[in-house]
Amino acid sequence: QQQVKQSPQSLIVQKGGISIINCAYENTAFDYFPWYQQFPGKGPALLIAIRPDVSEKKEGRFTISFNKSAKQFSLHIMDSQPGDSATYFCAASNSGTYKYIFGTGTRLKVLA
Amino acid sequence: ETGVTQSPTHLIKTRGQQVTLRCSSQSGHNTVSWYQQALGQGPQFIFQYYREEENGRGNFPPRFSGLQFPNYSSELNVNALELDDSALYLCASSLGGSRTGVNEQFFGPGTRLTVL
To answer: What confidence tens digit (pLDDT) does each residue in B41-99 have?
Structure first.
């Protein structure tokens, strides 16, 4: 019940295309869902996050879509650029613990 | 405002040895969490410290221990190192504890530990 399942494991997108990464969770106590971007040899950097009281959040080219009933959320990267090539992790936590449960990651490659 | 820093960047140890990793939290943050990230995997929660006290622990054995100091910097200690302890160790700082509902965690660059 503590798992966060992430897919796909890897993704190749043409420059200018839309990258979509999906995550699913079981624990309905989770109330915070961040996405992190990680480049090789670096720590994860917070991209965007959402709480279950909204169904969508957009920041620049990055959008989180959240489906509370399905217990799923996804990251959309619009107009994908080669500089977006990185590993993306979804995570979930609840306010009571602050423990983040991470997905297994998606390695994104954007072709120039 | 300074970000989260960690030292050392890389470390090589042999099986059975002990290691101490260090983390300086982002300015103003009073909570630090430690994660282990094996190659090709997502970070796994080790434990969290809030105002110098352990505030939660993941599924890691007692040979993983930590400290948080009054200036909110932190240490992760691992005793009796095993080959499987080879990983990137990340610390993340945040503001608040379990009562405030603030969740944003900011990660440092990590320490790459190799156990031979």
So the answer is: 999 999 999 888 998 899 999 999 999 999 889 999 999 999 999 999 999 998 865 55
Beta bridge partners of A21: A75
Question: Beta strand B106-107 with B111-115: parallel, antiparallel or unpaired?
Answer: unpaired
- A76, A20 contact by CB (below 8 A): yes
Torsion, Cα B4 A89 A14 A81, to 10 degrees, reads -20
Residue A46 to residue B40, Cβ atoms within 8 A? no
The single-letter DSSP state of residue B26 is P
Whether A52 contacts A9, CB under 8 Å:
no
Paired tokens of A52: 């279950």
Please list every residue in chain B whose beta carbon sits closer than 8 Å to the beta carbon of residue A32.
103
Q: How many CB atoms lie within 10 A of CB A73?
A: 26
Q: Do A103 and B35 touch (CB under 8 A)?
A: no
Query: What distance lies between CA B7 and its chain's CA centroid?
Result: 11
pLDDT at position B72 is 84
